[in-house]
Amino acid sequence: MTRPSGFSDERLARIPRLLEGQIAAGALPGALTLIWRRGGLVYTSLLGFMDLARGTPLREDTIFRLYSMTKPVTSVALLMLLEQGKIALDDPVARFIPEFTDLKLADGSAPARAMTVRDLMRHTSGLTYGFHNRTPIDAAYRRLRISAMDTPGGLRTMIAQLASLPLEYSPGEHWIYSVATDVLGYIVQIASGQGYADFVRQHILAPLKMTDSDFVVPPASQDRLAACYVQGKSGLELFDAYPNANYFVPPSLESGGGGLAGTAADYLRFSRMLLNKGALDGVRLLRSETVQMMTRNQLPDGKEIADLSPAADAFNESGYRGIGFGLGVAVTLDPARVGIPGSAGEFAWGGMASTAFFVDPAEDLAVIFMTQVITDTGSRVKLRRDLRTLIYEAMTDRNA
């Protein structure tokens, strides 16, 4: 049977079969998948558990740790300030963070040019993440616990730590996934005159009616926070859970790179706002031209991530062939080079606990996938690849 939304019921049934296999194998505790197309929610798959020890089945209103799916939200906050004339993409970061005026490279030399706000948004800033495990600089990040949400002193301390360390490379020369979006959160704070998290709450979460999303889970909702697991040698091992979950107390560092928790329904509202080019249910956050700019490739000379990153294959099933990066989201440039079904102009990102979203304007499509397991990168991206393939193959009237 083919639905009015252009999906085959028979082919959509392959999605729960894939995920049930993962759950049965002990790779996932549970999974929630939402597919929105042509103005309506056309598919929901709800499987497994939100807490294995408590035997609590996954619910549609389960709250998930979004981790890096916070990054597009922070990027929207920054772009809202851009529209207000308070910041420009080519502003030097040092305009807002004077400590970044004299950043150096590892050999003590000055970078070829100054870091800009655009560099932060597209991950060409020269900053890094400690988990890359490649250089003495990311080792220093691990030693200082840079990016940890419980960093004593919060964002201000993180900024001071970053200012004390060399850059990995001159801004604009490479693409390396990094703490750049946490720095963006600090700039949102400086440019707006309002705390970063408060700005997000007031100007994004509240207008979009994302009522179950925040940087802390309130007491009345704590029983809905899913347990989070780590994939260990013997299966799923508990990482964080009720009644002592990290998200139950305000964090020392309200992380623009990974601090939000929320429901699939809430994140669908955020995704629909982007799909609708900045507006949802009569509320406009961004101009359509700004969303178009956000979701177009911003890398130097129109290059792909694969051209600029020494570690690109650590994050994407294609090694980022055919993928560029906009202002806070990865952007598909050439589906044939990516090697899985999709459309040029599709944009996406995911989180550390294997959550993911993607929006395909050509197909009027938004997809949210939620689970809570921190696993090796290969397993995480394979699952996302397989899920995307099944979704596209279930469509019977693709526009692409």
What do you see in this structure?
With 400 residues, the chain is an alpha+beta fold. It has helices at 9-12, 14-24, 71-83, 117-122, 136-144, 154-163, 180-192, 196-205, 264-275, 288-294, 305-308, 335-338, 377-393; strands at residues 30-37, 40-51, 56-57, 64-65, 228-232, 235-240, 261-262, 279-280, 283-284, 323-325, 330-332, 347-350, 356-360, 365-370, 373-374. Helix 3 (71-83) runs parallel beside helix 7 and helix 6 (154-163) crosses helix 7. The protein is globular. The two termini are 22 Å apart.
- Structural class of the helices, strands and pairings? alpha+beta
Overall pLDDT confidence = 94
Biggest sheet overview: 8 strands, antiparallel
Tertiary shape: globular
Distance N terminus to C terminus?
22 Å
Q: Can you count the beta strands?
A: 15
Strand order of the largest sheet: 3-2-1-14-13-12-11-10
Low-confidence stretches: none
User: Percent range for helical residues?
Assistant: 25-40%
* Tally of individual helices: 13
Strand content: 15-25%
Q: What radius of gyration results from the CA coordinates?
A: 20 Å
Order of secondary-structure elements: HHEEEEHHHHHHEEEHEEHHEEHEEEEH
